[in-house]
Amino acid sequence: MSPDASPKADAQTHLTFARDVADPLPLHVIEAGALETWLQAQPDAVRTWVTASGFEAGLGASLLVPGEAGAPVMALAGYGTADARARGRFHLAAVAAALPEGTYRLEGMDADRAEEEALGWLLAGYSFGRYRTQSGAKARLVSPEGVDAARIEAVAAGEVLTRDLINTPANDMGPDALEGACADLAERFGAKMEVTRGEDLRAQNLPLIHAVGRAAAQAPRLIDMHWGDTGPTLTLVGKGVCFDTGGLNLKPGSSMGLMKKDMGGAATVLGLAQMIMALELPLRLRVLIPAVENSVSADAMRPGDILTARNGKTVEINNTDAEGRLVLADALTLGAEGEPGLMVSMATLTGAARVAVGPDLAPYYADDAALAAAIESGAARAADPVWRMPFHAPYEAMIEPGIADLDNAPSGGFAGSITAALFLRRFAGGTRYAHFDIYGWNPSAAPARPKGGVGMGARALLAALPEALDL
User: Fold this and answer.
1) DSSP state of 358
2) Strand locations in 382-450, DSSP E?
3) Over the range 77-116, which residues count as b (16 or more CB within 10 Å of their CB) and which as e?
4) Tens-place pLDDT, residues 150-175
5) Three-state SS for 370?
6) Cβ distance 91 to 59 under 8 Å?
7) How far apart are CA 430 and CA 242, in angstroms?
8) Numbers of helices and strands, H then E, in the chain
9) DSSP 8-state symbol, 399
10) In 226-265, which positions are buried (b, 16+ CB within 10 angstroms) versus exposed (e)?
11) Nearest-CA neighbor of 422 among 397, 450, 391, 463?
């Protein structure tokens, strides 16, 4: 695909299970401690081959076993020890990447593990090939018995959308293109979409979105998508800062290099929205994405400016690089006006969150204990790790500058993720609310997760929804 092609095509690459395959190759998944027992049940030729090959069932190891004619009759996948597996996830994705092209059928794995590993296998086939030819795993998998193949495929497709959107650089993924990706998604699933752009943002009382994005060549906008007619209402709000220079508080080059991913919250809620719509969950979905670029020009907002938000609160701008919470504030206020049963924001919001939990965990905030329990349970089932952080009320004073109602960038450097979450909660209107401060980027390759854009928290939320919304 040429660099000029629309990102929509790449974003909708579906990784699917092999179907209608007459004779897939058995892939025996063997834990390290069970190898001897397994070998004892095999013919002499198999025992001899496996032993001579030095296969010890270590995590991620693989081996093809030939028959009398020399062609493979089975494959082995090492599953290591429980301690080794606890240090990662999607372990069979490493095997998928190592096996030769062909179709395989899992043997010796229970359905609970098979669901996670089957998803990882599909995601091992992901590659971002918009600008140069790349390839993921070539080995195909037959859907394991006892798993919901359609659900796993829908989850994988949503993750692919998220990754492709994040991986696309800002010259091809500005507010115009992000709106186009939303429109494509809405068209495919019969959703309705409205967009408020440019000066209309001020006319429609969305002033903070306008203030952050007005310096950019592409107009700022608020994308509002609706899907579903019955059931409880879920509102997803995603930060869509397509590139963040820091504004007049310009970032240094070392901090600006990954800022194409500052729309990772928008990409993640769109991936989750696709999963929800593809699975036809019985709910009413609303997706709100403030899509802007935080740029530098004569019209850029300034440090020291005091802006009035949609809900009437005044905000002192002490750092123009703390723009994400501003665009989310107006979107959250609008979302709360619809009185949803649950509202969730997702944003690549603070470096403090990365310092606290690193790149692999999605920290989240929720006052509702039952909602938090549902998210924790969903995260464990979906192999999508999260970590609950506190809306710590004593820190509220840190976001109150005195000259205005709120400060967008408290000084001192303490509790940066918490104070950002407290800021956002001021705009949630008392709704049942959760906020995810995600990273959206895998800094080094791991099984099923190549270096680059990655969804965080979406699968946990998807798994939590039946309990969280009583579906």
Assistant:
1) -
2) 386-389, 406-407, 433-437, 441-442
3) bbbbeeebeeebbbbbbbbbbbbeebbbbbeebeeebbbb
4) 999 999 999 999 999 999 999 999 99
5) helix
6) yes
7) 29
8) 17, 19
9) G
10) bbbeeebbbbbbbbbbbbbbbbbbeeeeeeeebbbbbbbb
11) 391
- Please name which of 122, 266, 291, 287 lies closest in space to residue 198, comparing C-alpha atoms: 291
pLDDT tens, 181-209? 999 999 999 999 999 999 999 999 999 99
- pTM for this prediction: 0.95
User: Which pLDDT score is estimated for 462?
Assistant: 98
Single-letter code of the amino acid located at 330:
D
Active site residues: 251, 325
Q: Are 171 and 152 in contact (CB under 8 A)?
A: no
In whole angstroms, give the CA distance from residue 86 to residue 42: 29
Name 194's bridge partners.
224
How far apart (Å, rounded) are the C-alpha atoms in residues 50 and 318?
Answer: 65
Q: Which residue has 């403090």 as its token pair? A: 352
Closest CA to 281 of 236, 328, 233, 323: 233
Please return the burial class of 151, using the count of CB atoms within 10 Å of its CB with bins 0-12, 13-18 and 19+: middle
CB 283 within 8 A of CB 231: yes
CB–CB of 314/329 below 8 Å? Answer: no
Residues 6 or more apart whose Cβ sits within 8 Å of residue 446:
88, 90
Backbone φ, ψ for residue 63 (5° rounding) = -155, 135
pLDDT single digits (tens) 85-99: 999 999 999 999 999
Pairing of strands 72-78, 62-66: antiparallel
For position 135, what pLDDT does the model report? 78
Query: What tokens does 26 get?
Result: 């058995």
Per-state percent for the chain, helix, strand, coil, to nearest 5: 40, 20, 40
